[in-house]
Amino acid sequence: MNQYRKYSNELRRQIKLSMDQGINISFETIKEKITSVLDLWGLSEDEESDLFILYSKLTNWSALEKFLVTPDLTEVLLHSYSYIQVDTFSSHGLLNYEISFENEEDLQLSIEVFAFKNSQSWNSLDPFKSFYSIIFKRSFRVTLIHGSLCSNGSPKIFFRRTKEEFLSIDSFTNTIDQKKWLEEKIRKKSNIIISGATGSGKTTLMNSFIHNINIEEHLILLEDVHEFPGKDPHISCLLSGKKTLVDYCHYALRMRPDRIMIGELRGAEIIPFFLSMNTGHKGMLTTLHANSASDSIERLGTLFALYSKSKDLPYEKVFSLICQNLDYIIFMEEKRIVEVIKILGADGNRSIFQKVPEFNLLEDGAFQAIPDLHLGGP
User: Fold this and answer.
1) How confident is the model at residue 239 (pLDDT cuts 50, 70, 90)?
2) Band of the pLDDT at 27, cuts 50, 70, 90?
3) Half-sphere exposure of 149 (CA within 13 A, CB side)
4) Neighbours of 84 (CB within 10 A)
């Protein structure tokens, strides 16, 4: 056991040295260095096997492989060296599992290696990273949280599966009428916001919508983190980096767009996005974190007012701008569409909307034929 500890510590040291030198190091090279540094003739078959298992854990996420390759995986949450949570389409919630890193130091090293391989600077000065990566031939949006941000000092990493293939619209609906309704609104270039909680399926539904848009249209897709894997030539995808989504909204208007889409509304990009609607652009599409369809309108108003440079702009004007230009809000829960509302306008700081009959299920199981008017807000 003491001999293995000596070998394994040298393996860790060689991995760290290779990152300092800016190179990816193979297991064969590490074997040679271990035998050279420790003045050995060679490693036994068992020693080599044990070291390769450790090398794979530290450099290739082998400890997580059976979870990351799950066919219906949606997300893996790695909380510590021994504990993860996994969410799948079929589980409808998080399941707890144990994993087999030796200690927190090995987990830290694994994440450092992963960040290095993906050309990400990740440390206490730059503690939060979110990026797109291919792992076990599958695409993920990965988020790294440095231990300096966590109360227990342990780093965290989150793997959210992004599908290369897209799901059909009927994967999110309950009836043929619902599917036809959605396809019609996409074709007619309605301005739509897809809202819901984290992991509710907003991005997946938006990806399905994108693949239902006529290929003769020029789509401009603006993202903070690459989540939409489509490679269609009629889609111009701009990924924010040194420039912000606000900058890209302005650029998009000069690129002859048929539609402008933003991966997620959460900051100052809301201003040019809605002003574009107000100047006649149609078919706008984005996602938003919210608790309900009606709550989405309130959140949009708050975001617009918060990031508006004109602090004297009355909230009623903001609300009117949003409600006059937005057509529909689709609300998601557990990868299903549970509510759709049609925005009719605003009365002061209150929205006026109808629940779309095709998605308004009554207590007797029927869909409401004639929608009632609703007032949102206080």
Assistant:
1) confident
2) confident
3) 14
4) 21
Among the candidates 132, 161, 190, a domain finishes at 161
In 3-state terms the chain splits into helix, strand, coil percentages (rounded to 5) of: 35, 25, 40
User: The dihedral of CA 91, 92, 95, 99: what is its sign?
Assistant: positive
Q: What pLDDT is recorded for position 277?
A: 86
Measured between alpha carbons, how far is residue 317 from residues 173, 306, 321, 346 in Å? 35, 14, 6, 10
Burial of 205 (0-12, 13-18, 19+ CB in 10 A): buried
| SS3 (DSSP) at 117 | helix
CATH number, domain with residue 124: 3.30.450.90
User: Taking Cα atoms as reference points, which of 328, 355, 333 lies closest to residue 343?
Assistant: 328
Structural domain including 178 reads 169-375
pLDDT of residue 371: 58
**Residues 316, 262 share a domain:** yes
- Structural domain count, the chain: 2
Is the separation of the CB atoms in 342 and 297 below 8 Å? Answer: no
Domain with 247 in it: what CATH number?
A: 3.40.50.300
Residues 307 and 275 placed together within one structural domain of the fold: yes
For the entire predicted model, the pTM comes to: 0.72
Mean pLDDT score, 123-132: 90
Nearest to 322 by CA among 255, 275, 361: 275
Question: How many Å apart are CA 326 and CA 185, to the nearest integer?
Answer: 13
Whether 356 contacts 367, CB under 8 Å:
no
How far is Cα 255 from Cα 305, in angstroms, rounded to an integer?
28
Q: Is residue 179 domain-shared with residue 216, that is, in the same domain?
A: yes
Mean pLDDT over all residues of the chain?
86
Q: Mean pLDDT across the stretch 145-155?
A: 91
- 145 and 157 Cβ atoms separated by less than 8 Å: yes
Same domain, 142 and 236: no
Lowest mean pLDDT among 3-12, 93-102, 107-116, 135-144: 3-12
Query: Which residues are registered as beta bridge partners of 129?
Result: 144
Q: Do 144 and 285 fall into the same domain?
A: no
Question: Which one of 121, 143, 161 terminates a domain?
Answer: 161
Looking only at the bridges linking them, the beta strands covering 128-135 and 336-347 are unpaired
Q: Are residues 367 and 258 in the same domain?
A: yes
In contact, 74 and 82? CB cutoff 8 Å: no
